[in-house]
Predict the 3D structure of the following.
Amino acid sequence: MSSLESLQIAPSVGALPFRIGIVGGGRVGGAIARALAPNVAWIVARSPQRRWQLRRWLEWTPIVGTLEEIAVLPQALILAVPDSALASIAVDLARRFGRQLEGVLVVHCSGVLTRSAIAPVESFGGNAAAAHPFTMIPEPDPMWLYGAAWGVEATEVAREQIEHLISALGGIPYWLGEVCPQRKALYHLAAVLASNVTTAAIAAALRAARAAAIPAELFLPPILRATIESAIASLRQGTTIARTGPLERGDVETIERHLAALEVYPSLQQQYCAFLRAMLSERDHGPRALALLLHRYCSAFGAEVFHR
């Protein structure tokens, strides 16, 4: 069965047949720890506040501040730390445990770094892997992990353990193979655009609703729901994502009214210009009148998009 075909299988949640240690007590590490609590041997969390929070949820799990406080390694380690810390954590693991790493699965959760980011653990026989939950995790709650696809880089030796781990979290593994840094960056960019940039657009809509003195909690949810559900349906069907609005209609006068109304909200006006440019970048050309509008209202964004 291919990775793509496996996406049609409903995720499952179950117990792990091995124990894990978690380095990192933030949103990702916390969500994983809470989901797999019976199988968690220990957690390393540098922040005292994170340790206090984790102890509220995981009363019987050892939670410490440094790797130096860990004596024994379980069969698998999950590194849920910032990307900038991964290399040093891998070196610390290699120095601290040496040959104890032999046969231990060491998984980092970065979406942008390849598994080579933790190569030092392989020097002592550890199985380095990368498994990234392709979802939004706004808080350390296991529910955010359920149903997510995970981009996985690992050797065949680690396949069974990785699949057990992701299945126990209610996720779906997608095997990326051995990827180059550029492809991994593009993989992560897809997540950023789908999540962070989308929420930036929603935040802009919220600001506009407030400026218009309408209740955002009444007006925005239905249109957001319709937009997201339509986009998901198009993705599943392999069709073009439907769009509506003045740009689709070529209604330059309405866009001009938008830009004029935003003159008293300059940061929102610039953001709107950026969104217009992003939408226009998918077209070969746009109306000359709209090019003039962009030049007049947001010169920083220019009209070069129309003359490629």
Remarks:
- The CA atoms of residues 50 and 185 lie 29 Å apart.
- Residues 1-10, 301-308 have pLDDT under 50 and may be disordered.
